[in-house]
Amino acid sequence: MSIEDRIARARVEFQTFRLSNALVERLALELEVLRKVGEGSRLLWEGKGRKGKRLEQMYLPVIGPSRCGKSTGIKTFIENLDVVGNDDEIRSVVHVTLSAKATIKTLGSDILEEYEDPEFEEGTATKLLRRAANHIEKAKTDLLILDEVHHLIDNDKGGTVAMSVAETIKRMLIRGACPVVLVGTEQAMPLITKNVQLQGRAYNPVIARPLDLATKTGLAEFRDHCVGFDLMLVRHRIFRKPSGLVVGDVPAFAYDVSGGIIGLASRLFEIASEKAMVRGGDRIEDRDLSSAVEDWAIPLGITDHNPWTHGRKPLKSKKAGT
Hints:
By secondary structure, the protein is of the alpha/beta class. The chain is 50% helix and 7% strand. Strand 3, helix 6 (160-175) and strand 4 form a beta-alpha-beta unit. The relative contact order is 0.13.
């Protein structure tokens, strides 16, 4: 296999890595409960011959920095979903990623595109949302996940668009099609906190944070991630032998670069894997990790410090606000 083929294969395999952690486990629990709430509400309505109003629904905010594992946790839940039935038209859980410049109209379009509606951009905002509601009902969708909701805040200094979409989501909940999950960065918080009615329809939020190596829990979880990634490299036949990503200073140095954001730690290991392949290595070594910092993390502004050449920075507790 050529080096090009080997790297290309590895990049595909990296996308399939699934590592469990506290966030993934909590999301699995919360999303399954919500799915069953949606299912129970739908069955109750169907038992009444689809007549009358449906039960009003609530939503779950999932908030945290990019690369903390929010979307990966959701994808893992959907991949592991075991819903009885072979009807391809049934979609119990639907995960929609909102457009970069989200509006009420693009909200409808994005939902329709996820349902593979061939005319997902055709029509007014009202008509698009009505068709989206029809798809939700026809597919017996019991949980709708709207990802990247911070896009509602981007380029919307006055907050008009964000509040209008928030009102639209609130009406969807009142009409009771299914529970909704709103996923986004901390930028999305005003969408939730500044709309009193939407605020009052929220379940306990899931707040994703960078891991804190100064705490026992954070240290254990970050080390588990390093071990898990190393195991995945072997399991997916990227390398034949473990790289020892939990040995010596590797976890502390990886934390230094990533700031405790596990998605960035994974990306560091991915880049280092490619460095090892190029030099013909059979595992990741410190020189590959150092090279990944110099060629990837520093140029992209992820860090300005290479711990493999200058030692790690003093460890500070995030809880202390430092």
